[in-house]
Write a structure and sequence with these properties.
It is a single chain. The protein has about 550 residues and is of the alpha+beta class. About 30% of the residues lie in helices and about 30% in strands. It has a 20-stranded antiparallel sheet, with helices on both faces. α15 crosses α16. The longest helix is centred in the N-terminal third of the chain and has 18 residues. The protein is elongated, with a radius of gyration of 29 Å.
């Protein structure tokens, strides 16, 4: 590359670009949507060292990002626009640089790679004269490398010249293997960068990371040259892909990140063995007619994977009323418990905790393995249902657990033991008929039922927290959850068959206030939450070598 060509992008690699391009590009394009990119993931990965622990590729395809413009309430869109404007003013204090005019025209796809942490260097603190400095460990900064595709050199040159004139920007050049590395310092924070092959801008907060990228460009092994990289870097199939994430060695990544953090505890051999069950992970984020969708695929070691996946029929969702605003469902708690017990043999602390739990319930003549988990061999679900009556008046909602079982005899014996235990605590245990079903309630004077349980059919038992919830589950006069419009919208497009659902209805009038009561939310947060219709997650596993997770953030359509 000629000297003139190498210099024309020099100022474009300051700290402002690192943040604007590498971090805020996704947020900004929520409303604006950047222009298309000429650099694909595979091309960018050829400049990333093979030692990279993970990488993420953010596309700048205008058609993909334009899909986001069909979502969001007017209030949310105004909020995002204001925050982006404030961010632009903070990044470029003199106000003559903007993303829309100066960065968007030349930026192609962006790859962000995480490299192994550099060796920990002891930090020195100031001490009185004559006193030896005492080293202390400090947590390392992430070792990040950013590769930005350049799709319009003239626009990049214009931005370079404009950024160079910014107050407080200092530039210093050095040579490495015939390539010009530029140190750009702004607000006392240096950033190192290089333009490679006139097609990519490579930048990082550490000079060593840029040098490694140059080594890769000169012929050393790259992230793209890893075994299976060509197929992995194609990513996950999602519509209008916005970003893809690649983790070629999951256990190795976690191990190195922990080893590089002096404040983190080292992984015990048992934990490392668990991590090695996951060989690699690839994930993709896209946008479709329902909202933002994330799919992640984990490649597993079938020899180490002890979990026996079984799909869930999904019928149990029909046992909940339509106003259920949160649900977790699955299949085979008993199998999960057996796997946990087997796993505890290699973990002394876990084994001790299980033995303590067994001992605590044994006092009530209950066998934890047999009487509690043993009969939970079918589909199950836990749901949160709104109610402001009785003991739930102050909380605003209650919960219901529903289990399918093939061992009704053991389940009935367990509930009999629990009822007997409740009576010894001076709780009134009484029977009540609800919608033709025999329900047992644990009643508290002047407050009503604290807990209730009963059989919905021959094989399905429920436990309700709060008397009103027992009524809602036992005597459903209205539609069930699986027929509600919101549940269909949030989960209807998720992969089937699956292992169960996590479902959250954000459209319910009580959901956002309940979330606000558990976390510290401000008006801006509530505005964003009000743009979300619901959230759904499910997982599938074709065999012991592969597991797939799918998440949907269902968004409300924007007003036209």
């Amino acid at each position: 590359m000629s000297e003139s060509k190498s210099k024309f992008l020099i100022p474009a690699v300051g700290a402002a670009v690192v943040v604007v391009v590498g971090v805020s590009i996704a947020a900004y394009t929520y409303l604006k949507g950047p222009s298309g990119g000429s650099s694909d993931a595979l091309g960018s990965a050829k400049l990333v060292p093979s030692t990279a622990l993970m990488a993420a590729y953010i596309t700048t395809d205008p058609q993909a990002w334009a899909k986001l413009q069909q979502f969001g309430t007017p209030e949310a869109q105004k909020l995002v626009a204001k925050n982006l404007e404030d961010f632009n003013q903070q990044m470029f204090s003199d106000g003559n640089v903007s993303y829309e005019k100066d960065i968007k025209p030349w930026v192609g796809g962006v790859m962000i790679a995480v490299l192994p942490p550099n060796p920990v260097k002891p930090a020195q603190f100031n001490a009185p004269s004559g006193t030896p400095n005492v080293p202390k460990n400090v947590q390392q900064e992430p070792n990040i490398l950013i590769v930005v595709g350049i799709k319009d050199k003239l626009s990049a040159l214009n931005f370079a010249n404009k950024l160079k004139s910014q107050k407080g920007v200092k530039l210093q050049e050095s040579d490495y293997q015939g390539e010009k590395i530029v140190e750009t310092t702004q607000n006392d924070k240096p950033t190192y960068s290089v333009v490679l092959n006139n097609s990519h801008l490579v930048l990082a907060p550490e000079k060593q990371a840029v040098e490694k990228a140059i080594d890769t460009f000169k012929g050393q092994s790259s992230f793209a040259s890893k075994e299976g990289a060509s197929s992995t870097l194609k990513g996950v199939d999602v519509k209008n892909s916005l970003a893809q994430i690649y983790v070629p060695d999951y256990a190795g990544m976690v191990q190195q990140l922990v080893a590089g953090n002096p404040q983190a505890k080292q992984l015990p051999p048992q934990s490392l063995a668990q991590l090695k069950q996951i060989k690699s992970v690839v994930a993709g984020l896209g946008v479709d007619d329902a909202g933002l969708r994330l799919k992640a695929i984990a490649n597993l070691d079938p020899q180490l994977n002890k979990f026996q996946y079984q799909s869930s029929p999904g019928n149990i969702v029909g046992q909940f009323p339509a106003d259920t605003f949160a649900l977790i469902s699955g299949n085979g708690i008993s199998r999960g418990w057996e796997a946990l017990v087997e796993q505890s043999k290699d973990y002394p602390e876990m084994k001790q905790a299980l033995e303590q739990a067994r001992g605590q319930v044994k006092i009530a003549n209950i066998d934890l393995d047999k009487d509690i988990f043993g009969w939970m061999n079918g589909e199950f679900a836990f749901g949160a249902i709104p109610s402001n009556q009785g003991v739930l008046a102050n909380v605003g909602f209650g919960g219901a657990l529903v289990f399918d079982t093939s061992d009704r005899k053991t389940a009935e014996a367990t509930f009999t033991k629990l009822d007997t235990l409740a009576k010894t605590q001076r709780i009134n245990v009484a029977n009540r008929n609800i919608g033709g079903k025999d329900v047992t309630e644990w009643q508290i004077p002047q407050q009503g039922a604290l807990l209730a349980h009963g059989w919905l059919d021959q094989d399905t038992v429920f436990v309700a927290l709060g008397g009103p919830i027992a009524d809602a589950v036992s005597d459903r006069k209205n539609s069930s959850l699986n027929n509600s419009d919101t549940f269909k919208a949030v989960t209807g497009s998720l992969q089937k068959p699956n292992g169960g659902y996590f479902y959250l209805d954000m459209d319910k009038t009580k959901t956002v206030p309940l979330i606000n009561s558990f976390i510290s939310s401000n008006a801006d947060t509530i505005t964003i939450l009000n743009s979300i219709r619901g959230f759904g997650i499910t997982a599938t596993s074709a065999d012991k070598s592969t597991s797939q997770l799918e998440m949907l953030l269902a968004l409300k359509p924007s007003a036209k």
